[in-house]
Amino acid sequence: MSEYLLYPGCVASVRELGYEMSMRAVFKRLDIGLRQRDDFNCCMPACLVHSVDYTRGLALTSRNLAIAEEEDLPLMTLCSSCFGNLSRAKYLLDSNDDLRRDVNRLLGEVGREYRGKARVEHVVTTLYKDYGPKGVKEMSAKPLKGLRAAPFYGCHLFLPQRYSGFDDADFPQKLDRLIEATGAESVDYHEKTSCCIGCGSFFGEVSEEAGLKLAENILDDVKASGADAVVATCPFCMMQLEVGQIKLREAKGKEYGIPVIHYVDAFGLSLGADSAELGLDVRRISVSPLLEKLGRN
Amino acid sequence: MVDTRDLLARLLDEKKLSYCQDCGSCTGSCPMAKALPGRYNPRRLLQRVSNDLPELLRSEELWLCAWCYRCTERCPQGIQPTEIFLLTRNLASSEGMIPRNPKTIMRQIMKSGRSVNVPEDFDEWREGYGLPPIGATISPKAIEEQRKIFGEELLRRLEA
Ligand code: SF4
Ligand code: SF4
């Protein structure tokens, strides 16, 4: 049995419980162990904390890496923003001795140290690495035949290349391949690799305005593509595209009705799990149209 | 300690901003520029870092980058606007100029270890969905550690 150290992150474990339920159900089926701790701190979004103090921000992010080294397990995040922050910290400390020395001086004050051994993964990078499209396809007991899925990559899973290294930085493909392996069709559309700003903009009204504008662009494009659902990789993106639909209905009377699921949901369905097991009834936007299309419950 | 100004100087120096070709790839790939035309423009912002710094430190535009790294990935000259903007914000921060919303979230993080507020009875809610408890905050020892790493001076800056 393989094992990971789960980095729950704030958004998934508080705001997207359905996703966490689904992830746990799928990992249980795969017999992957998830070790837990109660002392991880927030990943410390670079756009906030590192903006106030670069070195201390990095030290706070790296405290989580130091804990992972203690456990000697790869750290697996549910959220692409956590993945981005942790991968960035690792990259910066591994490539700049001065920064590493300073960060370790701060970590030393609380009895910790970053040694450069931590590994950072994300639910999707884990599934890709441990199973890949081939493995997913082989395990697919109930292929998602007829489902047209719009992949939404988010940013930090593949940007910038030097921090994440997971996929091509201009035309990422891996999520498409993973989706196809479930038996669904991966729909091409222009906004597939665009940004939702959910994890990067905390500026009040301006951020709200910009976030809604971007959500509208993305949702319009998904709608035009004829996809049945968005398949995302990050709980922040999920939230932006779900809440975006609710707000656009209120503000403009636009009715999208587009289910927003995570890749583990699609994978879980192809494994044969039902919607209760995957927490698909715990979503802001009803997933019923997708289930109906598949003739599943 | 490495000084923020040194880090910034190194980034600005390594690939001098004078290498900027004004090609606009950064702005062309920027989601914030697309969402807020005329109000946010990373190419222009970068120029202001070198020739209009005091004014820039007081401006809202400095805090609008959503750290998506598209500009950094695409700049043909290897300039790293995203990291440059983060470091420039450090200069505003050291002069006590941290905007209100980011400040509120950071206070929340320093108090509970999380960026979102978790109500006291949230674990009962999670249990209802068959999820293990996470606690209203991370462990007290962890909070103490993060406050120590962040330091008294910065904690005070967030309260100001
Ligand atoms: S990192 Fe910031 S400036 Fe660069 S493209 Fe993204 S939002 Fe725009
Ligand atoms: S992409 Fe690079 S070279 Fe082009 S305008 Fe932006 S900073 Fe200058």
Please supply descriptive tags for the structure shown above.
heterodimer, A: 297 residues, alpha/beta, Glutathione S-transferase Yfyf (Class Pi), Chain A, domain 2, Rossmann fold, 2 domains, four-stranded parallel β-sheet, 14 helices, globular, B: 160 residues, mainly alpha, Fumarate Reductase Iron-sulfur Protein, Chain B, domain 2, 11 helices, binds iron/sulfur cluster
Please give the order of strands in the largest beta sheet of chain A: 2-1-3-4
* Tally of strands of chain B: 0
Count the beta strands of chain A: 8
Which residues of chain B form runs of ≥5 with pLDDT under 50? none
For the CA atoms, what is the radius of gyration of chain A?
A: 19 Å
Chain pair forming the biggest interface: A-B, 68 and 62 residues
Could you state the order of secondary-structure elements of chain A as H and E?
EHHEHHEHHEHHEHHEHEHEHH
Sheet having the most strands of chain A: 4 strands, parallel
Q: How would you describe this structure to a colleague?
A:
The complex is a heterodimer of chains A (297) and B (160). Chain A is an alpha/beta fold and 297 residues long. Chain A has two domains: 3-122, Glutathione S-transferase Yfyf (Class Pi), Chain A, domain 2; 131-294, Rossmann fold, CATH 3.40.50. Chain A is 52% helix and 9% strand. In chain A, helix 4 (54-71) crosses helix 6, helix 7 packs across helix 8 (132-139) and helix 8 packs parallel to helix 10 (174-181). The radius of gyration of chain A is 19 Å and the shape is globular. The two termini of chain A are 30 Å apart. The mean pLDDT of chain A is 97. Chain B is mainly α. Chain B has helices spanning 4-14, 25-29, 31-35, 42-51, 53-57, 70-74, 81-94, 100-112, 122-128, 140-150, 152-159. Chains A and B meet through helix 1, helix 2, helix 3, helix 4 and helix 6 of A and helix 3, helix 6, helix 7, helix 8 and helix 10 of B. The structure holds iron/sulfur cluster (2 copies). The site of one iron/sulfur cluster has 15 residues of chain B, from helix 2, helix 3, helix 6 and helix 7. The site of one iron/sulfur cluster has 14 residues of chain B, from helix 2 and helix 4.
